[in-house]
Amino acid sequence: MPDRYAVIGNPVSHSKSPAIHAAFALATGQDLTYEAILAPLDGFRAKVDSFRAAGGKGANVTLPFKLEAFDLAAASTERARAAHAVNTLSFDADAVRGDNTDGIGLIRDIETNLGVEIAGKRVLVMGAGGAARGVLGPLLERRPASLALANRTPDKAIELAARFATQGHVIGSGYGALSGSRFDIVINATSASLAGDLPPLAASVFVAGALAYDMMYGSGPTLFLRWASEQGVTHLADGLGMLVEQAAESFFVWRAVRPDTAPVIAMLRAH
Ligand code: NDP
To answer: 20 to 30 Å CA-CA from 123: which of 96, 165, 210, 265?
Structure first.
């Protein structure tokens, strides 16, 4: 019997993770299956328990359950504890272990796939939800010149920045406080595009040659990337590469085999 893995979320039917992990398994010769499991909003733990009882070996966790997954895991890696969020669960005979691969996924996409070094750069992250939590620690590890965190609800950004104060210099604020600041890398970690909205950002935040990065992805350029392009930004990237990179890190956590990501990113782009 192949080992069973899954992604658990709500909604989850749109998830590309089953296709990504199937491609990884085929390329690396790993004997596994990977399915999408919809959990009711009040039934995440029950879904994890039943999947584990049915022989599941591990699961990715997506919206809106990453904080619940952190609480559920008996032990978590340091990067998951720093984020206080889990996107990768591994099921041992006697315990559930939690990890967070979102941050390393973003770093690998920016540095390896896009060829942009983070060290010495002025970085802005917009949003203070689950996605932002997962990436702040790994971004700080890359030693940016500065890291700003802006959020619609300023208190959430201030609070989140304070949690990472021991790891580096990160300042949380609302968007108004960014007035006059300029950045080399601007990362949209909000879900504003889902509502057809843009974070209230001044066009002047981009320096010449800046990278505009949207963690969202879709069949065409996202709203934020279209807007950045209209402001003259030419280096634009959506979150598809991050998605594949975080999946590759989860695959490595489970199987101790590192799949090649470039062909899988190319396959998804071709679709
Ligand atoms: P959350 O729901 O946890 O957080 C949403 C964030 O967006 C909050 O900070 C919220 O601000 C902000 N926001 C929502 N609407 C608006 C708006 N209209 N204007 C300004 N800010 C707004 O979501 P996640 O952090 O989990 O996910 C964020 C995005 O990142 C999603 O689009 C998700 O798909 C993507 N993502 C991509 C990944 C990838 O691998 N590519 C991995 C993980 C996430 P407030 O606090 O004020 O409500």
So the answer is: 265
